[in-house]
């Protein structure tokens, strides 16, 4: 019975040691899992910060592009408006010139569309940015000072010489287009 008691005590000690080792092993496993979880959380945080940074950069880039597109749109709208006003002015000037010329005169008068003088021409149609004005060619006189001031204006590639007959033909085509609903 002593031997049985000592065997029983030895089994209990082994059982306690086994449980202790199992607990230590389980605790080590839990600690390893916790470390892995912390690493994953740090990685997750790093990825989130990186994504937020990229999102901010993309937002800034898109905002810049949007502002650039808006600016270009505004410039194009201004240019269209200026060209419309310029064309209206040319049409008004052309119709005023056509009504002031006599029916017997068949000479063509060159028109300079950007208010710069031509050595062979004394007829100038100044480009007004605030809208067109109706006037006859005889109403305009330029001296050298006016010529220098007008050359300082922005050149918008409208400096080609146009014959009044050509403008009248363009106006006629434009009127025909509207007449036929084109």
Automatic annotation (TrEMBL):
Signal peptide interval: none
Coiled coil region boundaries: 37-86
Q: Does the keyword Coiled coil apply?
A: yes
Annotated Acidic residues bias: 141-158
What does the UniProt keyword field contain?
A: Coiled coil
Q: Pfam families per the record?
A: DUF2046
Region: Disordered; residue ranges are 127-158
Supply the InterPro entries for this chain.
Answer: DUF2046
- The UniProt record lists the keyword Coiled coil: yes
Q: What is this protein called?
A: Uncharacterized protein
Native source species: Ditylum brightwellii
């Amino acid at each position: 019975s002593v031997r049985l008691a000592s065997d029983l005590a030895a089994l209990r000690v082994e059982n306690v040691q086994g449980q202790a080792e199992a607990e230590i092993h389980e605790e080590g496993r839990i600690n390893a899992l916790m470390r892995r979880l912390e690493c994953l959380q740090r990685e997750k945080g790093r990825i989130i910060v990186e994504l937020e940074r990229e999102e901010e950069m993309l937002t800034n880039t898109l905002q810049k592009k949007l502002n650039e597109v808006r600016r270009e749109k505004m410039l194009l709208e201004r240019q269209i408006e200026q060209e419309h006003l310029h064309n209206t002015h040319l049409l008004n000037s052309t119709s005023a010139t056509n009504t002031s010329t006599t029916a017997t005169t068949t000479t063509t008068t060159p028109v300079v569309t950007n208010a710069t003088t031509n050595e062979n021409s004394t007829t100038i149609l100044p480009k007004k940015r605030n809208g067109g004005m109706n006037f006859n060619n005889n109403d305009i006189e330029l001296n050298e000072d006016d010529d220098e001031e007008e050359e300082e204006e922005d050149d918008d590639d409208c400096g080609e010489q146009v014959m009044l007959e050509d403008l009248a033909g363009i106006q006629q085509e434009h009127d025909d287009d509207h007449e036929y609903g084109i």
